Amino acid sequence: xxxxxxxxxxxxxxxxxxxxxxxxxxxxxxxxxxxxxxxxxxxxxxxxxxxxxxxxxxxxxxxxxxxxxxxxxxxxxxxxxxxxxxxxxxxxxxxxxxxxxxxxxxxxxxxxxxx
Length: 115
Hints:
This protein is mainly beta. The chain has strands spanning 3-7, 10-12, 18-25, 33-40, 43-51, 57-59, 67-72, 77-82, 91-97, 109-113. The chain is globular and about 40 Å long.
């Protein structure tokens, strides 16, 4: 059974950093795109995505230059390094295939940016 488990969230001040991790079990993501999404209210917003095939990346305009997505094939884990965090980055962050599969939404990890 496929599971994607997020971790690494927390509370930081504006300008701070966090590194989120998405550990994937049940399959290897070599042939899939894996993305980070954030939920504010009921909507999910795609933040970043990485191709399991060639490592190509995508970033939401508002996070370009601040967030970096990477993958560790050996650990079957996707990371999201978030620097220069802003209050508007506050949300619950999830990882999933991109486009997302409704069966793979996990619990997410909360990121709160506040002074």
